[in-house]
Amino acid sequence: MFRFLKEVVAGSGAGIKDLPYNVGEPYPSAWGSWTHYRGTSKDDGSMVSIFSLSGSNSQDGHLAAGRNGVKRLRTVRHPNILSFLHSTEAEIFDGSTTKHTIYIVTEPVTPLSEKIKELSLEGTQRDEYFAWGLQQISKAVNFLNNDCKLVHGNVCLASVVVTQTLDWKLHAFDALSEFDGNNEASNSAMLQFEWLIGSQYKPMELSKSDWAAIKKSPPWAIDSWGLGCLIYELFSGMKLAKTEELRNTAFIPKSLLPDYQRLLSSTPSRRLNPLKLIDNSEFFQSKLVETIQFMEILNLKDSVEKDSFFRKLPNLAEQLPRQIVLKKLLPLLASALEFGSASAPALTALLKMGSWLSAEEFSAKVLPTIVKLFASNDRAIRVGLLQHIDQFGESLSAQIIDEKIFPHVATGFSDTSAFLRELSLKSMLVLAPKLSQRTISGSLLKYLSKLQVDEEPAIRTNTTILLGNIASYLNEGTRRRVLINAFTVRALRDNFAPARAAGIMALSATSSYYDVMEIATRILPNIVVLTIDPDGDVRTKAFQAVDQFLLLAKQHHEKLVAGDNSETAGTGMPLIPGNASLLGWAMSSLTLKGKASEHAPLASANANTSQISATSNANSVMDTQNVVPIHVSLGTHTSDQPRPPSPTSTDAGWGELENGLLHEDHDSDKSGWDDIDPVEEQKPPLLASIQAAQRRPVVQPKPAASSLRPKTTSKPSKAEDDDLWGAIAAPAPKTASRSLNVKSASLQDDDDLWGSIAAPPPKTTRPLNPKTTMASDDSDPWAAIAAAPPNTKAKPLSLGRGRGVKPAPAKLGAQRIDRTSLSGL
């Protein structure tokens, strides 16, 4: 016998002292004499159901039957039988009387009659849900009768409850007994508590208490009759009042009618076995039943069956009862994806079902699964997440994105698949606004720096677009350090025309972040060059950008004329109408939904992401441009187009960021924009800057004593002894690489603030050394007024031999120094 824990509580109306659950409001209906309460756990607040049964004394028949039900419910476990959690029996003193009460705590459930009213299903959807529920109760009865040799005795509408996932479960085990079919001659009662069963639910043999006939019948005879009663109550919508009402079959669906009549056969031995009802009933062959059954045995299906099923599921879900889909199918689907038994197409179905939920329910039921899926190594799952990130990205918190999602998404930036790199880039439009400044500066910008020299033109173009869109989320120091370098040094010099157009539009869209000095010295010079670009779209956008930035400069000039010398950085001038559409264009370009054709790594990626277009209104100076597909020829254009030698080179970096978080991996990779003067440095006065720029081409280190030897074009070893120009010759370069660096510096100094007005270097007609004695260190205050070096009319010995000496080819880096001018002094 089951051992009960009894709690004796003093005081009128006192509850159970140590019951670890709170008893809530009761439901209006319950089976038999039981009362069904809502309840919660005192530990974690989780929902439970609490059933109570009271009697005047401990020997009360109802209490005895209740104890039998508790024992059976605790020992019999099945997916379609109510799950037992806790039980206790207490004595409550109410004034002069003592009240004995049994409490059973189970999983949270609702009476079936109440749930049917709540769902309010009609027509086909009602029949499909009833088919699913009846099949579950039939499985429970089959388990009791055929597997356990037990007889429930009172299967009806009141003995069925519904879980939060809308599963039907059997309970009310007070009359449950073993089937004693071995002793057929005995007339003893097989069901000890058969008096609890309502007369309208009793079959003929049970009403007559013909125990001999019952024992000769199959174990399912009594409960099959009960299943017939349940079917009648379900479809009629009324509680069975008397047995004769079962003859009315007007409410029963035609596909279920033959099985209904066999369940209610007057001959016990001919009643339909619940197992055959499950396997053979035509009524159970519905879309809902088949869908849920497939999901429950998903691990047994092969990959082909899974793919076919999940591709059909989004459309199928629209035809099924919405509440069943959200409360039953959605949890099954989320669990299958989380534990890896579902394939990638299931993600589309999950997100579609999730779109039918409220924001709170979506965050509770769908987002946890999505966050876990980002850690999946399945590339198809990752592609699906990135393609649909706009559907759930807004629901993700900043902390989850920064700590749990971005580290996994960032692996796609360096993936070998161009399609996945592109999707990872596009996802940043949704994720970047919620990233911390440390993550943006320390990780994201580093990845974008690499993607801006990606081998795929579409990726380079969209990287520029993305930078223009997330500029507002960068801190001021990072913006000033990164944006101009990214847009001018790389985007405007890309050999892919849409990438150059994107760079122009990005500069225009972020114009409020640049001061007038940057506009005049770094932005306009780079944009003006593109006014003669071979691509017409680039030229058009270049002219519009020039007009916009000239307008900003003109407004600054007008302020100065008016006497307003205040700082003009970040004035936030409005964009011209044409460029005002950059954000909208970038959004439409970057958030294209993934289609089946996109799974081609290159062709589909190009078709969806590298189209550059701009819209304008009637007052806009920009005409609507045609879409530029990515398959435009990538060959170089005219020689006067400023673009890097190879956009796919690995020279990376936008310089060291202000907070020191962005560093390149190798020193050799820092050749991109490291030679550009930092924007933050204090600018020199106007005259001093011009003088510095004029001196720069000829400034050389002091000559070393060991290098005051000429280098001739014929025999250097012999000329060292008899060269008459040794006393005044310029020092030889220290190393060959130093000579190369001189030219490299002059060629790469494209962004020199004063390069356009610097004095031109003198011409030369003879090979010269890259160092000169007339140039001194910048720290020498007398360098500008030092006396000129001596000269002589003597000729080198090599010229007196009567042989014409051809001037040697000029060495790299020496074109800016004119030695012939010294001989005329």
TrEMBL record:
SUPFAM superfamilies attached to this UniProt entry: ARM repeat, Protein kinase-like (PK-like)
Superkingdom, natural source: Eukaryota
GO MF term list: ATP binding; protein kinase activity
Secretion signal, residue range per the UniProt entry: none
Keywords attached to this entry: Kinase, Transferase
Sequence segments annotated as region (Disordered): 634-656, 691-723, 746-825
Residue ranges of every copy of the Protein kinase domain listed in the record: 2-284
Biased composition (Low complexity): 781-790
UniProt-recorded name of the protein: Probable inactive serine/threonine-protein kinase scy1
Organism for this UniProt entry: Phoenix dactylifera
